[in-house]
Write a structure and sequence with these properties.
mainly beta; Immunoglobulin-like; four-stranded antiparallel sheet
Length: 154
């Protein structure tokens, strides 16, 4: 009798689990991720991922270094001849060597975070880009004031 119950249970279990094995899972199709690529231009081209860098709210005397990433979307090498900050508190760095077509590079910028308060500064790039020989990049944010000294107990 016990063998019969065990045999019936085993057959029922196999039948039950087999019916679920026949079901196919329906997965949602994967979303296509498309890269934003600027069209190729004749001559040298410059295409930035972002031309505005928002620092957000940062601490006084914190690291003010950031990078703007760009790609030469042209058919000729891109040469950046100058990068000028709008004031002495904004210091840009740029690649001095030509950037090959399709290559990616960065424009570095260091903001002096010793100055509390909101800021909006610009960096003007000069290059041989056929579409934008003069490009304006913007940095903005807010530097928190120095914390007040703790009150001294008398």
């Amino acid at each position: 009798m016990k063998k019969g119950i065990l045999l019936f249970s085993a057959v029922a279990l196999l039948t039950f689990s087999g019916s679920f094995a026949q079901q196919t899972s329906k997965k949602a199709p994967k979303a296509k991720v498309s890269k934003v690529v600027a069209p190729t231009v004749q001559g040298a081209g410059i295409n930035f991922v972002n031309d505005v860098m928002d620092y957000g709210t940062i601490e006084l005397k914190s690291d003010g270094a950031r990078e703007f990433v760009f790609t030469n979307n042209g058919t000729q090498p891109l040469i950046i001849t100058n990068a000028q900050g709008s004031c002495g508190c904004t210091v840009p760095t740029w690649p001095k060597a030509p950037i090959a077509p399709g290559a990616t590079a960065v424009i570095g910028v260091k903001y002096d975070t010793n100055r509390p308060g909101p800021f909006t500064k610009t960096i003007t790039l000069t290059s041989n880009s056929t579409t934008t020989p003069s490009k304006l990049l913007t940095i903005k944010g807010n530097v928190l004031p120095q914390p007040a000294a703790a009150a001294v107990k008398s």
